[in-house]
Amino acid sequence: MKKLFYTLLLFTLTISCKNEKPLGWIDEARVLNRDAKDWVTLGGDYMMQHYSPLNLINKENVSDLGFAWEYDASTYIGNVPRGLEATPIVVDGIMYTSGAWGAVYALDGKTGKELWTYKPKVDASYARRACCDAVNRGLAVWEGKVYVGTLDGYLACLDAKDGKVLWNKDTFTDRTKGYTITSPPQVAGKIVMVGNSGAEYGVRGYVTAYDLITGEEKWRFWIVSGDPKNGYETPEMEMAAKTWDPNSAWETGVGGTAWGESAYDPEFNLLYIGTGNSTPYPIWYRSPSGGDNLFLSSIIAINPDNGRMVWHYQTTPSELWDYTATQNIVLANLKIENKERKVLMMAPKNGFYYVLDRATGELISAEKYTRVNWASHVDLKTGRPVLTEQGGWYNDNPKLVIPYLGGGHVWQPMSFNPTTGLVYIPERSVPQVFKAFVPYKYRDDVDNTAIDYGEMYKFNKNVPEQIKSAEDTLRTESLLAWNPVTQKVAWKFPDGGPDGGTMSTPDLVFQGTRTGYLNVHDARTGKN
């Protein structure tokens, strides 16, 4: 009997040891059943809503919120202050976050104590290739591993316990081109995917998927076509090529990089990516006969098992204005016309708020969430924006266009609150004169937008006859609460624009400011 007891005890201890998970253990079950105290993806969970159900901090006591700790994530290359644009992952009391160049910091969530850091050896020259500094927009934590992209193009897999490098893969297809990585990796099923940046610097965008454990490359999805004379890598590229002039400026790479937050829906087994702008911006230089130029400025659903496209939706055909669709993707279940719809939502740069069926890509609705003058509306039958006079080519005369190239919403994440039913967008309305350089000639590894930035705010000089009201030259910024079902403004708080992304709780909205303040608003009314 005693022998049997010890045998059972040993068996129980063995099973317990086997079931003990290493630090940083996030898997599908944990994401689907997220403990409210954890933040297991960049958006919180698979829905990517940037929403926390925690309500210990609420309207009644938020004024008592105070300082707890800070951590100096100072630069380690060139001794130059750099931006921080990543949302941390928090699991089991440990905060994992990325910083400039693709550095990783593991901190004790309660005290801010540094547990370990990963600082890749990146040549400082890569900062000159980055349009918007040597930033990094996040990492992924999965089954005891941390995945991060470095500015110089490597996808690193680290041990979540101590930061030890488990594998490190070169994601660039051509190191003579101006590629960088500022985008966060995305885990989808058995792969981890990462995109790249650098559309303005003469590159051709793509995303690449790797085995989570071994780092073996599983597939690559090219976003825009290459020269048809060289053949097509995939059926998607053969399809895309039909929307480009065969004599396009292929040497420019034509852009289309994917540098924002992506999303994954395990129910449909779909990986959603948003794609970027063209190079150069003027279509008459890159695709002289015009065309939609797929898959620029598009939302694409990919089967992560094989890298094949399931559906796509292009927000801005014939992209002319740097209107990327790389803004954060939010998944939600909304009741629309008395029917529950499983949707994907985005507020891209072009100023329209899109609600799509996330299984099929069907356009459900699209309305202006900010001031827009380049298009009057989106035709729900064709899914295409209806251009105005201001939305035409600016090859002969400059055009006064709203929003400007920075868009109505850019990289700072919006959040969706399932309690209030509202989306909170760091919104801005900025006019710009679009005036192309004449003549234009492509040059390697430099900004090739072909836009005269020095003329972009000289309204009275360039387009006096196009100014119809004071709003046409007025810049505004706000924190915008938007109802995605009615596609209408719920409330707007001025001067809360592109400072920082938003996070909401049942009755609050949090947003950081560029001047170092944390602003908290009533989620239903906007009261500060």
Question: Could you describe the 3D structure shown?
Answer:
The chain has helices at residues 2-19, 28-32, 235-241, 283-286, 459-462, and strands spanning 89-91, 94-98, 104-108, 114-118, 140-142, 145-149, 154-159, 165-170, 186-188, 191-194, 206-211, 217-222, 263-265, 270-274, 298-303, 308-314, 330-336, 339-346, 352-357, 363-368, 375-378, 385-387, 399-401, 415-417, 422-429, 432-434, 476-483, 488-494, 502-504, 508-512, 518-522. It has a domain at 132-499: Quinoprotein alcohol dehydrogenase-like superfamily (Methanol Dehydrogenase, Chain A), CATH 2.140.10. By secondary structure, it is mainly β. It contains five helices and 31 strands. The strands form nine sheets. A four-stranded antiparallel sheet has the order 1-2-3-4, with no helix packed on it. Strands 5-6-7-8 form a four-stranded antiparallel sheet, with no helix packed on it.
As for the CATH topology of the domain at 132-499, it is: Methanol Dehydrogenase, Chain A
The count of β-strands is 31
Helix/strand/pairing class, anyone? Answer: mainly beta
Q: Quick check: average pLDDT?
A: 94
Shape: globular
What is the CA-atom radius of gyration, in angstroms?
A: 23 Å
CATH superfamily of the domain at 132-499: Quinoprotein alcohol dehydrogenase-like superfamily
CATH hierarchy: architecture of the domain at 132-499 = 8 Propeller
Q: How helical, in percent, are the residues?
A: under 10%
Q: Strand percentage, roughly? A: 25-35%
Describe the biggest sheet?
A: 4 strands, antiparallel
Number of helices: 5
pLDDT under 50 segments (min length 5)?
1-18
Strand arrangement across the biggest beta sheet? 1-2-3-4
Distance between the termini: 69 Å
CATH level 1 class label of the domain at 132-499: Mainly Beta
